[in-house]
Amino acid sequence: MTNAQKWKVFFLLFTTMFLLGGIQNTKGIILEQVHHDIGLTMSQIGTLISTFQYGFLIASLLTGYFTDKKGLRFMMFIGASCMAIGLVGTSMAFTVMLFLGFYLVIGLGIGSMLVSIVTVIPTFYKERAGMMFNVANAMFGVGMIVTPLVLNMMFSHNISWRIFYIAVAVIVALILLVLTTLRLEKSGGMDMNVKDFMQLLTNPRLMLVIAYLLFYVAAEVAFLNFFPIFYSSLDIANATVAEKTATGAYVIASFAVLFTIGRFIGGFINMRLGERNTLILFSALSLITLIISRMMVYEWIYAFMAFGFAMSVLFPTASAIGTRMTDKSGSMLGLIYVASGLGGAFAGWLVGMLSDTYGIAFGFNTLIGFVCVFLVLSWFVREAPNTAK
């Protein structure tokens, strides 16, 4: 690969991961605005989150197969096109159904781009794959940190969330432009065929890890998407809606800061404690910090930063345990993405429904239940040697 091509791959990798982190971490902040803008109920917000996750799930299932058949560049182009169309369409949606439809398209685009970008790293950086995975995740974390602050600045100047989505669409269009000039050899995607899936589904130890990841993602999605709405609903003395919206954005950004730091040092934590001990300890820490943060929501809202740190190491640690339980690592990664989609969709539906019926405070507290479930599951997860199949 020429130096010019390498720089294009760098640009695609880092820009895409930055945008994916930013979009994932601002859905809740934007939905809080959309809640008032087009009159969404809490159930409809839950449906939107579930629809987004279903789009992500469908794309995750199909991208590996079509990357293998059509090539990496083809799937990156499809994913970026879906993101651009979905972002522009969502920015112009003034009805619930239009917003719902285009939100699904965004989910499809993000799922396709994420799986494609994950495939780029081992394909083009074989000898430095570990380093590139860390750097890519760092850019994902930077996106999580920066974009809530950008949104808060926009809202403080009365700039609509719709402009934010249009601006992101412009950046995605630039990604599409670079893709048209990039020459990529046809590369194998993640092998996610039905036969391998069925074999994995019959392995109870693997299914335990998948169940853990499903409830972990449910907790993460519930927090990131519903916290801004929950906090804006609180009756805080002398705080206007605009001030609560700004504080909510800062909390999400601060959560992302410690979440990213935790991802950086997670490897050292695993080496020190062991993967299973890390899973148990940080699952318990997640529950403790969440309960304390919830109790201190009026006194010191930034306690949720500690919850972000506790959650940071769980997904990569559980994923590492799971992939070593089988020689079908590609299919296992596909199953992990499936669990992510299902967990996020489940959280959106349940928290939205409960919030509509019993109030947003009750719905948000469901997050504690999700963390309790994956804490219990962590005790039953067992590590497997590298030779396990």
TrEMBL record:
The chain crosses the membrane at residues 38-62, 74-94, 100-125, 132-151, 163-184, 205-227, 247-266, 278-295, 301-321, 333-352, 358-381. It is found in: Endomembrane system. One of its GO terms (molecular function) is transmembrane transporter activity. Its main location: membrane. One of its GO terms (cellular component) is membrane. Keywords: Membrane, Transmembrane, Transmembrane helix, Transport. Residues 9-386 form the Major facilitator superfamily (MFS) profile domain. Belongs to the major facilitator superfamily. This is MFS transporter.
